[in-house]
Amino acid sequence: MRVLMAPGDMRAQPSGTPLVGEGCAGLAAPQVAAALARGWQEARGADVVVQAPVADGGPGSAQVVPSDMVTVREALQGQGPVGQVREVDLLQLAPASGAGPGGGRASGRTWFLDAARLVALPADPAQARQEAREGTTYGLGAVVAQALRRTAPADTLLVGLSRSAVHDGGAGAVAALGGVRGGRALVEGRSLGLVLADGVALGGMDGAGAGLGMTVGVQEWEAQERDRLACRHAADLLRVAQTGRLEGLTVLGDSQPQRLTPTTWGTGAAGGTALVLRALGAWALPGARVMARLTGLERSVRRQDLVVTAAGEVYDLLEDSPVAVVARAAQGRALPVVLVAGRSLLPRGERAGAGVSSVYSLEQPHTDGGGWDAGGEQALRQRLEEMGARLARSWSR
Questions:
Q1: Which of 40, 240, 267, 359 has its CA 20 to 30 A from that of 193?
Q2: How far apart, in Å, are the Cα atoms of 336 and each of 295, 322, 332, 343, 352?
Q3: Domains defined along the chain, listed by start
């Protein structure tokens, strides 16, 4: 039997947003795939198990790209929201993996910048609140500028971004890029794509600013003030960027172009840096969809008998989440899909509609053994190995 292990990250979501920064519990997608594969092969050693972890553009996505698809891997040093020195990966991808925004071949080289790692949502609530109150996206803008200077005209630079604690409307980022004029000069002739792990808008009732209280823990009045300042800066930036250049910008899923605003899909990623880059001419797509294309998920699904995916906490299946992207690829070949979740409250009808055949949860209801990620990384690996063996006994033929 041939089995494809195509999991995403397994991370806790104490406030509805996965925690993937330094010190956060859980496992990255490659570690999840390896643990499930070990368990399966211990139980059914004759089966062929292929590992194809799926990233979504969030922190660490560069680690999911197979080494044979990377021609150059470089570490760029930058500053986090409150001055922390961090490194982010810049990958030059092999020609076969290069793709443009619509899935076609890119005319030049394709690069991927794991920028989300620089402003990842911290596990420490005190640090998260400090970043919300004092943080800036300047360091992120500087790293994007470094990456753009390493590219050439006709190249494609893909920038992974996700939700963060910092919320300055991209003010720091645009300053680091040299303002609107300097940023456009850096982007000129290139295809700049945003690979978004979170499609949250910058402002609005469901925007990143409105969610600061829940995700970061600042008081409501503080969240409102931060959001007011961020959206005011974003509106000022858009007025400057669109002066004499009032073309519409297509929003994902819309058949008619519409103007870019602080409530546009995806503009709230990385504190509003996504809005800044969109204003400079970047396009944006859901991260799991882009990363699956880059890493060849469709090719990996071929000639398999079963696909196993995984996620930390699943309450619904967002259309372009890693689980949904994997299930869609498997559906195209009529393959059964098994979902391993740390915790799952997924309704049966929703999982069936998405193409998921069965769900297995690490956390069992009505038990006192702690959460699904209790005990740290080693304990979680052990649970996943045991789950891999259980799946093999149930599904192998």
A1: 240
A2: 21, 16, 11, 21, 11
A3: 2-50+318-395 (3.40.50), 61-290 (3.90.1510.10)
